[in-house]
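User: I'll paste a sequence; please echo it back and then give the predicted structure.

Assistant: Echoing your sequence first, then the prediction.
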Amino acid sequence: MDLDLKGKKALVTGGSYGLGYACAKSLSREGADVVICSRSESNVASALESIVKETGNKVSGFSADLSKKIELEEVISRAKSYIGKIDILVVCTGHPPTFPFSKATDEDWMLGIDLVLQPAIKLTRAVIPDMLEQDFGRLLYIGSVFGVEPEVSSVVQSTLRTGLNSFSKCIATEYASKGITANVICPGYFDTPLCRNLSKQYAESLGKTSKIKQL
């Protein structure tokens, strides 16, 4: 399938594993110039090698922790130093703390905000000007099924992912006439390292043993 992405410039956060990696690989396969970032420098290097081997296209990347304000604020300028501009932004971030309301602390809530909402807000704000100038932009946020059907055992994620859905809807409505789209993907359970770790957490919270091997 030709999605007419050849030559487009894409930034994928959390692009070294899981769904972020899958997005980066698919974009590269379609001919987009891709740059990824993730917290682990070694994971980034491994992902770049794998994507280049499979797609034959050049992919760039760097390490960045989006929960840290200084690193988050540098992401766009660092990405643009590799690819010049950003036509497509894919925001895929870490998983917020997994607790019911009775156990979630103020620190858990603040970490959740730093992981889920702050990157989406700040990165979108940073790329919108160039997208407006060229009358084209694609904003894609990786959310969660918990943003559609809240889960009592994960109140922080359920609350903030719902907020991410509303954020994307507002962006889409405001900028649709300018050639900019915004969408949230709300996945359920995929066989990724994150879901395996979450399965283990849920099993332990119920006093049971997870039979899923960790990746």
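The helical segments are 18-29, 41-55, 69-83, 106-134, 155-175, 193-205. Residues 9-190 form a domain with the Rossmann fold fold (CATH 3.40.50.720).
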